[in-house]
Specification:
single chain; 371 residues; alpha+beta; 12 helices; globular
């Protein structure tokens, strides 16, 4: 049995509806966003593990709303899986463990919000998308996630990060940064600014579609990268979509766009040599083919037609955000060197240009998709 050294986490755990004997508690992960621990309990001779996490209030201003959204989504998914007679449901969606007073979080004496999940056993994650079969699985998993949530009929989720993917807001923030130019960097980013300003109107297509009603509002994950999927260690089956902190209302195209952006880039997000940055069409074909096999039945024709634009638009919004942070003096994203955010923005722009060079191929593939 490991000694519990941190009295704070010991006290936190005692407020959650967990019964049995606490055997051990150790830090888990790197803790960049949320401080995380994993505990082990002996419950009548059965070993059960839990994840405890302190929610970062600097990122999530209203942690209670974050937890309300997560509970609404996981409860709905659990009921959906049960209705379909699926097994192993506790490994297919996160299980929120409430406090003994029924709340979804514990507020400690320092004003920190804590939450607890049942730990998902015998799973693995992947950091690198290195094959088209893995791309297909990623697409299928996000498609399945969206397909089930398309019939969600509960209360509207909270906008935990208001206007997160609003291109109008992001360009206004860029405009404000350029007007102030607080650290004198505008001149060093002129080529990137020229490109983003020339593409300003095209990038508005998702935001304008939502505002006009041409795009439906649904539930979006907003961080659909590969390492937010849990895979069964033995079978390799994709089981569970995790990191639900940013689930909130939006168009499902926010999620397809982020999936395309993160999966199809042949280089790292901060690759200095932009000649290495290309849009991998083969990965795109596997990714969206897998996605459409699960999601195609609920997509409208207009949503289907904008699948390519979703990837380009979310890539563009990230370029705008990164360049804005560079102009502002690196106040949001962590940087390792002076031009890190500028390099990131250049990489996103290079990916957009590579998409554009293959646009006819991309749109022809989308046109021919069949459920």
């Amino acid at each position: 049995m490991n000694a519990i050294q941190d009295k704070e986490i010991f006290d936190v755990i005692s407020h959650f509806a967990i019964y049995g004997d606490l055997v051990s508690c150790t830090p888990l992960g790197n803790g960049h966003i949320n401080s995380t621990y994993r505990s082990t309990f002996n419950q009548g001779g059965v070993t059960v593990r839990y994840t405890h996490q302190r929610i970062n209030k600097n990122v999530f201003k209203k942690p209670d709303q974050v937890m309300s959204n997560i509970a609404a989504v996981t409860d709905f998914l659990r009921a959906s899986y049960k209705k379909d007679g699926l097994e192993d449901i506790s490994r297919r969606t996160l299980t929120v463990v409430p406090c003994k007073d029924g709340k979804l979080f514990y507020l400690d004496t320092q004003g920190n919000y804590w939450r607890t999940y049942l730990f998902v056993e015998n799973v693995t994650t992947y950091e690198i998308l290195d094959s088209t079969p893995l791309a297909q699985q990623l697409g299928q998993t996000i498609g399945e996630f969206q397909n089930r949530l398309a019939s969600y009929n509960g209360p509207r989720l909270f906008d935990t990060i208001p206007r997160f993917h609003d291109m109008h807001l992001r360009y206004q923030q860029l405009d404000d940064a350029l007007a102030r130019d607080p650290v004198g960097r505008k001149a060093s980013a002129q080529a990137e600014l020229d490109f983003l300003l020339a593409n300003r109107q095209r990038g508005m297509i998702l935001s304008d579609g939502l505002a006009s009603g041409k795009l439906r509002e649904g539930i979006t994950h907003n961080d659909t990268k590969l390492n937010n999927i849990l895979f069964d260690q033995s079978t390799g089956e994709a089981l569970c979509v995790i990191d639900l902190d940013t689930v909130m209302p939006g168009t499902v195209l926010f999620d397809t766009g982020d999936m395309i952006r993160t999966a199809t880039n042949t280089a790292a997000e901060d690759e200095k040599d932009v000649s290495k940055v290309t849009f991998n069409f083969n990965v795109f074909r596997a990714l969206i083919g897998g996605y459409y096999s699960k999601a195609g039945a609920f997509l409208t024709d207009y949503e289907k037609s904008l699948l390519p634009e979703s990837g380009r638009a979310i890539t563009q919004i990230m370029a705008v955000r990164m360049l804005t942070d560079y102009i502002n003096g690196d106040v949001y994203y962590h940087t390792d060197y002076l031009e890190h955010n500028l390099v990131r923005a250049r990489t996103q722009i290079a990916l957009m240009k590579s998409m554009d060079s293959q646009w006819d191929l991309i749109t022809a593939f989308i046109h021919d998709l069949k459920v």
